[in-house]
Write a structure and sequence with these properties.
about 130 residues, Immunoglobulin-like, mainly beta, four-stranded antiparallel beta sheet, 1 helix, elongated
């Protein structure tokens, strides 16, 4: 009977050796997408008119594994050749207001090489009397 107690106790100890409640492993970005959206986060639908008078944003969606509560992970991207970043704390979607340039705007997530494009055509108008 005493031997069975020690065996059960040993099995419990061995099975918990792999558990680490204070996991300090590096968080992993498991998936990511990047897109242009309206400043309020609403997706830009096909056929929507891209106007210079409307505010736009970059939307980055992530799924994170191993992120300690209250900590963040930096997601790096390039917008029109300029490097930038956002901090994600719980995975999900974050948006960051951007200023579009005239012509093709390209956003690329560095971790996954996913890319989004949007075209802004700012035509110059001249009033004729």
């Amino acid at each position: 009977m005493k031997c069975n107690f020690y065996i059960v106790w040993l099995v419990i100890i061995i099975s918990t050796l792999g558990c680490n409640k204070d996991d300090t492993s590096t968080p992993m970005l498991t998936t990511q997408s990047i897109s242009f959206v309206y400043e309020n986060g609403k997706p830009i639908e096909p056929g929507d008119c891209i106007k210079p008078t409307i505010n736009y944003a970059i939307s980055i969606t992530t799924k994170l594994k191993g992120l300690p509560i209250g900590k963040g992970i930096v997601v790096k991207y390039i917008l029109n050749g300029v490097a930038d970043e956002v901090t994600v704390t719980n995975g999900g979607t974050v948006t960051k207001k951007v200023t579009l340039i005239n012509g093709l705007n390209v956003a690329k997530a560095l971790e996954t090489n996913q890319e989004a494009n949007i075209f802004l055509d700012m035509q110059d108008f001249e009033l004729v009397n």
